[in-house]
Write a structure and sequence with these properties.
Chain A is mainly alpha-helical and 307 residues long. The radius of gyration of chain A is 24 Å and the shape is flat. By secondary structure, chain B is of the alpha+beta class. In chain B, the strands form 6 sheets. In chain B, strands 11, 12, 13, 16 and 17 form a 5-stranded antiparallel β-sheet that branches. A 4-stranded mixed β-sheet of chain B has the order 1-10-9-8, covered by helices on one side. The chains are: A mainly alpha (307), B alpha+beta (541). Chains A and B meet through helix 2, helix 4, helix 6, helix 7 and helix 10 of A and helix 1, helix 7, helix 14 and strand 16 of B.
Chain lengths: 307, 541
């Protein structure tokens, strides 16, 4: 097990460098960021040159990348164009996004798995058909439609919530945005769990457990669910990364100053430092989440062993 | 039915969750009257909040509250009135003697003196400080030593600025510029306290100025709380207790918050909501001209677009654009069809006049004829470039192309050419990569006809992106700048504008309005000619 973890951690190193290099090159391909700083007029050449020098943009790309990586390992992610340290931006944005992701994941687990178990056990019954139909609707409606609709109904028409999240972004403010963010994944989790449960319901070990006279609840939670969760855990694990980086739409609708918003603004302003910094951290999150998922397999299914 | 209990629990959990959020509702602002606090939408300023480094509206909002300069533009007429200036005297339009009024202080108690101005201007002009508005000081003698086009600066301060007393200083310009004092209302010319120079980082985290408001707290990227400064010495004291600027990720969200009653003022009504705005807000919606004009520029650096007879082609294209229809259907009248190259906010005395006439009027038959006489569109198809990330540029460019195609009876005469980001777009413009017409926008720095013409169309001027050049135009601009009599100067500028018209150096499209919506809590909301809300006059009911 220990050796497996170490091997996986070592594998992360090339992935990490490859991913950051790709991002670095992609942002650079977009062209000269200084041109956008002066509005609809031309920056005067001397100031532009001075700014480029300051941000290190006058050097060749490979040199910029090496300097940048060197700085990253000392904890210096550079400075955004508005003079703020990228680490400061991260310190503001990541806690918010992590809270949002937690809320979303919680919804996925609680509602998604419950509905999945329910429909899996009642396959073909009206409950099953209704939920399946509902998930289909949720999957096919884009997030921005759900988000704007929920905001309009709950926020403006019925006044149950504030339409926008304050800059503190506390957990209770994030419940509705979290639900919107989770909605599509939630539907997938329901469907995955349902299929898995329905399949395993007829497995020999379930019949044995029932024959032993175990209570129904125990059969479902200890035997059936545990085995059926493997594909669901894989999905949720990869979803952590996707939710953190891909919340741009939800974050814009509900005015959440998180990672998605910072990335969006970074891309618009072609701010290499911000974009690469945030993506680097997101790459790390992805890698760690995937490792955790693989380790969870062994917990869920004792037949899986890592050496 | 054990399974059903799960569903019940899930439903219950959702209900609890929704109920919990309902309790999280905010309370907006304190009481009403003179102590009431106005909450207003904001965007994260693109640059550090230094006066000479702020060139967009979001940072401009803050500067308009915490700084007062020598001159202040009247929010209604745009006229430059003396603020901190007691008098600005000149005999030759080159040497100016400025006297600062007595009794002004920064909000930290420091006196505003001649030195506060001179130090600030020298800071703004110096190359090593990376100030994006440094070119504002370009007319002052010695600018080329502190801000050379190439190489390192050879001086620390501009030789044209001299402190001659506690409250007086002299300015020497490199050439005659009779209306130069009018430019002094721009934020770049604001005075700075000594604390700025001794601890810049500290100052930036909580800027200190001499305006009617002081900054109470500033959390970068999310919000700024400004309080009324009770000891403010000026006559334009704040009519409310303070302003809270909240950063919104999207102007649609800000608008929704306004409708829901959580926000008092939105100064950027999203294009998608313009259709509903009258129904939502009624008379709490303002739509007034601002000093912004949008034009279509041509790549005169490209030989295909710089042939002798092509003035007719450009005039034809101008006549092929149905400005009325586009401003009504796409912009819901938040743009006004252009009739010259300046802006209505200048007023007739300032030089606003229907110079373009017929050439800006839609006439498809005439357009077709003129384009043919002008040799037709180079290459048969022209691509209008624009940045697709902000504004509704795609919509209007497509509409302009449609209008041109219909007029010319050719489906392929004109197509849009979107560029992904503004930065990339500006980059292609300034490196002269574009081989067709491109959109151009100009927001005035100060309400002078000079500002709409010289930076944009003078040979090799800073924002002459299309590289249009005309010796006659340059001669008239020089002549106008040297003219001491303002009315006469304006007349000569209009003559220059006629030269520009005859060659159609750029096609004027429309003037952009400033738009804003406000809640029932506040009144007396206006926008100044720079489309920045006049915060100090807002009253809380």
């Amino acid at each position: 097990m220990g050796r497996y973890v170490i091997r996986r951690l070592l594998q992360m190193i090339p992935v990490f460098f490859g991913a950051t290099l790709l991002i670095f090159l992609m942002v650079n391909v977009m062209g000269d960021p200084v041109a956008g700083l002066c509005g609809d007029r031309q920056c005067d050449p001397a100031t532009a040159a001075q700014l480029k020098k300051e941000f290190g943009l006058d050097k060749p790309v490979w040199q910029q990348y090496l300097t940048y990586m060197g700085n990253v390992f000392t904890g210096d992610f550079g400075t955004a164009f508005n003079g703020q340290e990228v680490t400061e931006l991260m310190a503001n944005a990541f806690p918010v996004t992590i809270r949002l992701t937690l809320v979303a994941i919680l919804f996925e687990i609680v509602i998604g798995i419950s509905l999945g178990v329910l429909t899996g056990l009642k396959r073909g019954r009206p409950v099953d058909t209704t939920v399946l139909l509902l998930t289909l609707v949720v999957i096919s409606v884009p997030t921005f439609v759900t988000g704007l609709l929920v905001q309009l109904l709950l926020g403006v028409k019925w006044k149950w919530i504030d339409p926008s999240v304050s800059s503190a972004a506390t957990f209770d403010e994030l419940i509705v945005p979290g639900l919107v963010l989770a909605s599509v994944s939630l539907a997938y989790v329901t469907r995955l769990t349902r299929t898995s449960i329905a399949e395993n319901k007829r497995a020999d070990y379930v019949r044995t457990a029932v024959a032993k006279g175990l209570p129904r609840r125990r059969v479902i939670t200890r035997h059936l669910l545990r085995n059926s969760l493997i594909p669901v855990v894989t999905f949720i694990g990869t979803d952590v990364g996707a939710l953190m980086g891909g919340a741009i739409v939800t974050e814009r609708i509900f005015n959440i100053h998180g990672v998605g918003y910072q990335l969006y603004q970074g891309i618009l302003r072609q701010n290499t430092q911000t974009v690469v910094g945030f993506v680097t951290v997101l790459v790390l999150v992805f890698l760690v989440a995937n490792l955790l998922v693989d380790l969870l397999y062994a917990v869920l299914d004792p037949r899986i062993r890592y050496a | 039915m054990r399974g059903a209990t799960h569903a019940k629990w899930a439903a219950l959990a959702t209900a609890v969750a929704l109920a919990a959020t309902a309790c999280g509702g905010g309370d907006s602002g304190g009481g009403g009257g003179a102590d009431g606090v106005v909450s207003s939408s904001w965007g994260d300023p693109q640059n550090p909040l230094e006066p000479a480094n702020t060139n967009e509206v979001q940072g401009g909002k803050v500067l308009s509250m915490i700084f007062r300069g020598l001159k202040q533009y009247d929010p209604k007429t745009g006229e430059a009135k003396d603020m901190l200036a007691e008098k600005i005297e000149t005999t030759d339009s080159t040497n100016f003697t400025i006297t600062v009024k007595d009794g002004w202080t920064f909000s930290n108690g420091e006196k505003v003196t001649a030195k506060s101005f001179v130090d600030a201007w020298n800071y703004g002009a110096h190359l090593k400080n990376n100030q994006k508005n440094a070119y504002f000081f370009g007319q002052i003698e010695g600018y080329d030593q502190v801000h050379p086009e190439k190489g390192d600066p050879t001086a620390e301060t501009m030789s044209g600025l001299k402190v001659t007393g506690d409250r007086t200083f002299t300015v020497k310009l490199t050439q005659k510029f009779s209306t130069w004092p009018v430019t002094l209302g721009y934020a770049a010319f604001a005075p700075l306290p000594q604390s700025f120079f001794s601890d810049r980082a500290g100052w930036l985290s909580k800027p200190v100025g001499n305006g009617p408001y002081t900054i109470d707290s500033y959390s970068k990227g999310s919000q700024m709380v400004l309080k009324k400064w009770d000891a403010y010495p000026g006559t334009d004291k704040a009519q409310n207790g303070g302003v809270t600027l909240k950063v919104y990720t999207d102007n649609n969200t800000a608008y929704t918050d306004l409708i829901a009653g959580n926000l008092d003022l939105v100064d950027d009504v999203p294009a998608a909501q313009l259709k509903n705005v009258e129904a939502d807000l009624g008379d709490r919606y303002i739509n007034v001209p601002a000093g912004i004009i949008q034009t279509l520029s041509f790549p005169f650096y490209d030989p295909n677009w710089n042939k002798p007879n092509q003035a007719k082609l450009r005039q034809g294209l101008s006549r092929a654009i149905d400005r009325n229809q586009i401003t009504e259907t796409i912009f819901q009248k938040t743009r006004t069809p252009a009739v010259d190259w300046t802006s209505p906010v200048l007023g007739e005395d300032g030089g606003f006049k229907d110079v373009c006439g017929d050439l800006c009027t839609y006439d498809p038959a005439e357009a077709k004829k003129l384009v043919a006489e002008g040799g037709g569109i180079p290459g048969g198809t022209m691509r209008i470039s624009y940045n697709a990330d902000t504004g509704s540029h795609k919509e209007w460019v497509d509409a302009v192309c449609n209008s041109i195609n219909r007029a010319l009876g050719n489906d392929r005469a004109c197509v849009g050419n979107p560029v992904g980001t503004f930065a990339d777009y500006r980059n292609q413009v300034t490196t002269q990569k574009l081989t067709g017409p491109f959109r151009a926008g100009w927001q005035m720095d100060y309400p002078l006809i000079q500002n709409f013409l010289q930076p944009l169309y003078y040979t090799n001027a800073s924002s002459n992106d299309g590289k249009w050049t005309n010796p006659e135009f340059d001669k008239l601009v020089n002549q106008a700048n040297a003219e001491a009599d303002t009315a006469k100067a304006v007349g000569i500028f209009q003559q220059a504008e006629e030269v520009l018209r005859d060659d159609m150096g750029a096609i004027p499209l429309w003037y952009q309005n400033g738009s804003a919506g406000y809640s029932e809590r506040v009144s007396n909301v206006t926008l100044n000619p720079f489309s920045v809300p006049v915060y100090d006059q807002i009253k809380v009911n």
